[in-house]
Amino acid sequence: MGSVNANKKLQVLLVGSGGIGTMVAYALEKGGKAEVAAVLRSNFEAVFENGFTIHSVDHGEIKDWRPTSILDSIPSVNEESWRAPYDYVIVATKNIPDIPPQITDIIAPAIAPGHTAIVLFQNGLNIERPFFSVFPANPILSGITFTGAIESPPGTINHYNHDRSFIGVFDNPIAASYSQKSRAIAAARRLVDAYTACGPNVDCTYEPDMAYSRWRKLLYNASYNGVAAILGMDTSRMRFTEHVIDGLIRPLMREIRATAKAAAGVELEEQLIETMITADGYDKFFKPSMLQDVEKGRFIEFENLVGEPLREAQRVGVETPTLKVVYELLKGLQFKARERHLEEVVVPRSGVGLRYGGCGKS
């Protein structure tokens, strides 16, 4: 990241202003050390006319709030030479690499080579790899949040879990020099400073060990998220049944723990499994994000939550039978969404030429 005047507000572009992204933007703007330009899509009209309405456990009731700028498309640093380059581009969209377009292509016009730090406030494993190759001169930062916030209806944010976030640096094998790593660390710490300036209710810290943090969060996301989507069941009902926990959730978490150690040398404490099983307040009847997407007929972000841990396990020879079944079921759910939304996905009426298209004879 290029030099930044310590007395000048950070220039931040937010891509993905749903529940999580909007709360990140609000914290940055409230702290007074950053100006945020938010790219809106389906909620653009509602926010442009009325601003955001935010019901926040950390910040209280906020009406008619807008970031510094509201945009309906990605700005281009080349075509808009008058615009100062963005110091940060924060990506808070769902991570769905199996559905085009790719996020690297979407944000490319806004990236100033060698200057803009790209911050991935997204879930999952190995999400940074495409960015290393496309933006080799830019710091790629990791954002992990344990807050809970959803947007419903458009322009209304319900922020119901306290903001506890971690920002750090992905280990970039392409940018291996000491100076590049130092610049990335400085960019991460500068963003943490701007984030925490909003007040004591928000807990945002610099995380030096991002591998541990990502695998730790996968204990939850690779288990509860996928199973919830498949069963159509919130986490409280899973815990009430007991057998869903004992037969699916706990085995999945154990497979993730074993894979983390074998594939990445990350030691996840055994007790973390029990902590994650009861992470959601029982009285919340919480629906993980993948279940919410299934209910709304949207694409699901399963490849980096389930597919990548599975591929890492296969690479190092760790047996993950439960994870494998969950992954194949999620691929089936994604196919249903692809058939619903993508014109090029058409199931032929005839099975001729298909591997399993024939009618077996008894």
Number of strands: 12
Strand line-up in the sheet with most strands: 5-2-1-6-7-8-11-12
Strand content: 15-25%
What is the overall number of helices? 12
- Using only CA atoms, what is the Rg? 21 Å
Helix content: 40-55%
User: Strand-and-helix sequence, N→C?
Assistant: EHEHEEEEHEHEEEEHEHHHHHHH
Structural class given helices, strands, pairing?
A: alpha/beta
Largest sheet: 8 strands, mixed
**Span between N and C termini?**
67 Å
3D shape: globular
Q: Segments where pLDDT lies below 50 for 5+ residues?
A: none
Could you tell me the mean pLDDT? 94
Summed up:
With 362 residues, the chain is an alpha/beta fold.
Describe the structure.
With 362 residues, this protein is α/β, with parallel strands linked by helices. It is built from twelve helices and twelve strands. It has helices at 19-31, 44-50, 103-107, 129-134, 178-196, 210-231, 235-241, 243-264, 271-277, 289-295, 303-316, 321-341; strands at 10-15, 34-39, 52-56, 60-65, 69-71, 88-91, 117-120, 140-145, 148-151, 156-161, 164-169, 203-206. The chain has an eight-stranded mixed sheet with strand order 5-2-1-6-7-8-11-12, with helices on both faces. A four-stranded mixed sheet has the order 4-3-10-9. Helix 5 (178-196) links the parallel strand 11 (164-169) and strand 12 (203-206).
